Hints:
The chain is α+β, with helices and mostly antiparallel strands. It has 28 helices and eleven strands.
Amino acid sequence: MNIVKTAFCSATLSVALFTGCKEKPAKPSAFIDLSAIDTSVKPGDNFFLYATGNWMKKTSIPASEVGAGSFLDLYNRTKNNIHTILEEAEKNPGQAGSIQQKVGDFFASGMDSAKVDQLGYTPIQPFLTAINSLKTPENMIQYAAQAHTRGSNMLFDFGVYPDDKNSMATIAVFGQGGLGLPDRDYYFKTDAATQAVVAAYKTYMQKLLMLTGTDSITAGKQVELVYALEKQMAESHKTNVALRDPQTNYHKMAVSQLAKTMPNLQWPMLLKTLNIQVDSVNIQQPDFFAKLNQLIVTQPLGTWQLYLRLHTINSAARILSAPFVQASFNFYGKALSGQTQMKPRWESVYRTIDSQIGEALGQLYVEKYFTKEAKQRMDALVHNLQTAFAQRIDRLDWMSDSTKQKAKEKLQAFIKKIGYPDKWRDYSKVNIDRNHYFDNVMAAEANNYQYMIQKLGKPVDRTEWEMTPPTINAYYNPLYNEIVFPAGILQFPFFDPKADDAINYGGIGMVIGHEMTHGFDDQGAQYDKEGNLKNWWSKADYDQFKNKSQQVVHLYNGFTVLDSVHVNGSLTTGENMADIGGIAIAYDAFKMTNEGQDSTQKTDGFTPDQRFFLSLAQIWRSKEKDAYTRRLINTDPHSPAMYRVNGPLMNFTPFYKAFHVVPGNKMYLPENERIKIW
Length: 678
């Protein structure tokens, strides 16, 4: 069976799952892509390449993409389903005020590229005029705060979240921000790849100024001023590794004290402009705000006006006329990610709708493509993995009984969300007009901002979701102590109710185990069962846990990705721990099933255990453009796909037994060196 045929069969099965159509049960071999397996590679040398090597050799990355693989295949199937929903809603918007009308008219307005192009940058002209009229640093702070109310996190990051140390209450949270490049390190690294990105960023900023009326020479000089300002801001930014420590990124401070220690930020006026009334806030990175407090008065107002102008244009570029969209793509798509061709416009409009009124679109998606049967099967899988995890905790040889009991209490307290929310967001206050795309985005942004700030002073609503139903992802939220699996990921190759247990436990089972382990990784382990940043460990147990965490850091630091570029073991610690734990928990749960207990019956020459590991490897099959890989290494807390497979399996003895891994194989580690945490 070749890749194209398997992908088609998988897509057919996926559609059958979500439309409820009845088909003949698929043969088990349909769920493992046999043609992808490269038998010239020994499983014990590089299992990722063994399971996916032929696919890697034959697969080309589309010009409009940054990579290819299982996630993209599933995304393409899902987006095509959503495209159908969007076009149907556009043609038949239904009753005014209905979610069908809002989704359909939003899509229609975004697809009217002729009108968008005709407007040019007229929609943001009032903002640019306001910037030109700023007279004082206080005016500048006020403008930046106003930008937040329309969805632009300008100058700093701001949001309303559960309080890390009182998770039943909300708190206003301020964090470092204000940069145009993805990460602080881009401003200080001197290697050729980073410098190429910096040059492209400056070219992009210059283009934005030119598109709004500035000549090229003047624009070039202005860009240098803004870049120098951003670099000074970046000096005070914590690294991505430092941001992973929840304790050192929590600083609850009284507003009255902030007004004294950082007066240039005009805290009373800033909070009033943000439309919030609070006595205290969480300043996650005080050093950044201290630096910002200084720069506000030491940098010329004219430089700050240029900064605000550029960031205002940049934040709107994707929804303005074609020249702005192209300029944005040239930087974010080409320079940062390696794309060579822009995606069709409808995809950009879809992503905007998903980010702005995502649960409205999600309702339409769930009604058409998700079934109760899928949710019920997932409920059973999650329960089985919870049971397996609890048993693994009981067998730990490094943890005391008292800490084990608390760990199991936290595990049993998990909130489990599957498919879609029990209650949907209300978008009745969002007015959508099929003739005004920019205004629709602004209306949705304003509504989302009001939705966020109205949480202040109210009990935390733990029924909320952070992802929309079609999203192909999953997450663990330590503040809610919850694991969440949107409908989008509950499709093949991760999950299919027609698949045998080896496939589902190696696929979505690993994802479930991964998210569960996040509750006990180097970050999640610092939160208790109620979601509070509060120690529940004995000192001796936590010291052992930290030592084991460092073993993970050391192992992954040794993996080379590109030339001399290595995995950042410190940045990826939590995800690597979750991968290692997720595979072990999923495997134990699989061994509780009838198929898992049968070690003799083979399908296509593979035992159930071998099919479990092949399913795991093939869900991660992917290849990416080098530019995108470099960006991820700098900013993404996940390891590259190969090491999300090989790293955990190097440390998992049942894999050694299933594929006869022996000394001399490149993945072999002596048993006493294999990392086992959970």
